[in-house]
Specification:
elongated; DNA Polymerase III, Chain A, domain 2; 8-stranded antiparallel sheet; about 45% strand; about 375 residues
Amino acid sequence: MKFTINREHFNSALQLVSSVVSNRKTMPILQNVLLETKDDSVFLTTTNLDLGINCSVKANIHENGSVTLPVKELTRIVRDLADIEVNVEASDKSKVSISTRGSTFNLLGIDSKEYPPLPGLDKKDSFKIERESLLEMLKSVSYAQSVNEERYMLKGVFFKKEENDLSLVATDGRRLAVATTELKETDQTGSCDFILPSMTVAELERLPQVGNTIQVSYTDRQVQIELEVSKEKLEEQGFKNSISLISKVVEGKYPNFKQVIPKENFNNATIERELMLECVSRASLISDERITLRIKNKEMEITGQSIMGDSCEKMPIEYEGEEATVSFNPKFIQDPLRAVKKDNITLEFRDDMSPGVFKSESKPDNLIKILCVVMPIRTD
């Protein structure tokens, strides 16, 4: 194997695949990246057996071949090389030379034949969605994933597709976040549901901006996410073809999230999102993990209290109705306020025993609807 590649392009690809690398000491090869050459591309693959990632970068190929190399060491070397053009040459199945003008590094790897192949998906179904839409939906719900090891089914984001409607859901039992949209493609009818693990969700949120369309393919046990690289980004970042993630799904049945969403009539107020986030953040500086919202005509008071003192913030809102008071964990309010990108949101509320519901409706230029249900802290 022998090729010449742009250092920045090579580094970007290594950074992308390195976070998937396994730390299992029992399988040292999983700490390596698989490098393969074909035509005018270098293919990079890493896997931890639960999640795998593959991408390709343009290069000048002088001799085809394959090898696996320790990804952390290779990434450090490529990142710190002084010249823009990098030469990579394998003298045998496991020894590789990385050189630029004035610098030469030799790395020992492992024969590529020992590298576990990424699984293929048989009898798969699929749908397409815009990259920006999927990432916005993920970021609007992923903060609500559970971190409790015992509740493994909640350690991920639930994808539920019904005909052309797609919902992404996350909950940790104390809050529920739901993002829904209508898929634009007219031929994507059909239904599916699966739970995407939190590690895969994190990798999806890191996908580089190299294309506009993501194809999601799925079976009962696995999901493949492919980001098609646009021609405009090829010259700029060097990625070719597509970036592909293949992940196992979380086994088990996700709870019926629709039962958690309040169906009775609540009062509602229109609130400036960024202003509320600022007020909640300041009020929570002095609080015992609880802030209280006192909602009145055209005004909301946000108070925090602890043995050290108290705080009070006031902000204007669009609301006319009976006064209400409800308390929440400030973090559970800050998370959806940070995640939603709309200027204004709707807060639905009733009393100190009922959950609060934050909503952001879809618009003609953005079909995503966001909802977050937050359980209250009883006001003494």
